[in-house]
Design goal:
Length: 468
């Protein structure tokens, strides 16, 4: 008999069942899963008491949060709920500040990071972040890391970046970026405080400040994978190890031409960290790489490359609605003022508070996310798509699928293994063309995996968004 098994049997005899269950129940899910393998008695206790609730973990895709220019709330584009799937509402009507602009900055394992709040849409709870003074000399973005299999706590990390054409001293322009050590502000939900944390660089920098300020990218997505945060900015990715205080720079794949008009999306998918680029000219070339860190130096491995323009020229959608549904959060909130001005200059006191709060339910559609054999390249009723504008909405977290937007009108699932496109439905917010500025489109988007655990306080009934 192995020592571990002997000790576990001794504990079983010494502790009553209720006490053992209470001790095991305090473990995080990942440790609880490991404890389940120790012996038959522990496995029976965990299974009989249902201590390991995998149904509460972020293991499924519920939809995509999309932030459109000039809209105050993010829209939620989602799979319809069914009797076997819990309903998720994209309406953030429980937020405490009714005058704020609720743009989503980041998402990680079920938690949304807004400018001043962390939100769990599944449990409809939120917490307010303490404010930090503005960064001096640089700009910054916030990112969130959360792994409920390890801990119920999360961290928010503020990372400085360089803005295009910043006016800098010539000496500073020759300095390396990111610097080493790299001083970052980190908020921990366990301490409820911001703290300064130093990260030391391993390897070379991304370049000089003078070279990097010439580049600009609107997208700044991040991915959290195996205890590290990956943040994409222009022509490099910063990998922050949150366990040992080290970071390294991973430059873009060598065959990316930064002189072209590119859109990027860094995200987590089936096999780790993925990077997608989309050229806006010529053939709308989509390229997808997977980050390989098995060797001493991380490198990007090309997974897929295809020109989408020929595919779009013979592909057409045939459904007016569905199978996915846009919740039209902003239209519902501004329904009373429909026909007149209904965005920034409208206060919440003017809103019709009895908007549609129900989550769309539509059982007759099915999304074949696990079936790449479905043929979507039919020629019947094809519409001309030669002038379509494409945006990257993100990666499916558990399937090799890229979500795309066609001219901010249709949501599409593009299967990397079959190069087939699947129409998911309309993503155009109702009457968005009456609200948006010329050229308005999608600011950011985040595939959402719901999580029903985490330490969040209840929202007081008098502090929610619709308080009069």
């Amino acid at each position: 008999m192995e020592p571990t098994t002997a000790r576990s049997m001794t504990i079983n005899y010494l502790l009553p069942d209720d006490v053992l269950a209470d001790v095991l129940g305090r473990l995080p899910p990942r440790s609880l899963a490991a404890a389940r393998c120790v012996c038959a008695a522990w496995r029976a206790t965990i299974d009989d008491r249902r201590l390991l609730r995998t149904d509460l973990l972020p293991l499924s895709l519920a939809g995509i949060f999309i932030h459109f220019d000039d809209l105050r709330f993010p829209e939620f584009f989602s799979r319809p709920s069914t009797p076997t799937t819990p309903a998720i509402s994209g309406k953030l009507d429980y937020m405490p500040n009714k005058y704020a602009l609720y743009a989503v900055n980041d998402h990680c394992n079920g938690l949304l990071l807004l400018y001043t709040h962390v939100v769990n849409p599944a449990t409809r709870r939120c917490v307010t972040l303490p404010l930090l003074p503005p960064s001096r000399g640089t700009f910054s973005d916030n990112y969130i890391v959360f792994d409920p299999t390890v801990s119920p706590h999360y961290e928010v990390i503020r990372i400085s970046y360089l803005m295009c054409n910043m006016r800098l001293d010539p000496i500073i322009r020759e300095s390396e970026w990111p610097p080493s050590p790299f001083l970052l502000n980190v908020f921990s939900s366990s301490t409820k405080q911001w703290e300064d944390r130093l990260f030391v660089r391993e390897g070379e920098a991304a370049g000089t400040i003078g070279d990097l300020v010439k580049l600009y990218s609107r997208q700044h997505y991040a991915a959290y994978w195996h205890g590290a945060l990956y943040v994409h900015r222009c022509n490099y990715v910063t990998r922050l190890s949150l366990t040992d205080g080290k970071y390294k720079v991973i430059k873009n794949p060598q065959d990316i031409d930064m002189s072209k008009c590119l859109k990027f999306y860094l995200g987590k998918s089936e096999n780790g960290v993925y990077l997608a680029s989309l050229e806006q000219e010529l053939d709308l070339q989509l390229s997808v790489w997977i980050l390989n860190e098995s060797c001493a130096k991380a490198k990007w491995v090309l997974k897929h490359r295809n020109n989408l323009k020929p595919l779009l020229s013979r592909w057409g959608y045939h459904q007016v609605n569905g199978p996915w549904i846009l919740h039209d959060v902003n239209y519902d909130l501004y329904r009373k003022n429909f026909g007149g001005p209904w965005f920034y200059n409208v206060t919440y006191d003017d809103l019709l508070l009895e908007g549609n709060n129900e989550v769309p339910v539509e059982d007759k559609y099915e999304w074949y996310s696990d079936n790449d054999d479905v043929d979507h390249d039919t020629q019947d009723g094809v519409e001309e798509q030669s002038h379509v504008s494409i945006s990257l909405l993100g990666f499916h977290p558990y399937r090799e699928i890229v979500f795309l937007s066609l001219s901010c009108e249709r949501g599409v699932a593009y299967h990397l293994n079959s190069s087939k496109m699947q129409d998911l439905g309309s993503i155009f917010p109702q009457n968005f063309n009456q609200v948006s500025e010329v050229g308005g489109g999608i600011e950011a988007s985040f595939p959402y995996t719901p999580c029903w655990i985490g330490e969040f306080p209840e929202i007081s009934s008098e502090d929610h968004l619709y308080r009069n």
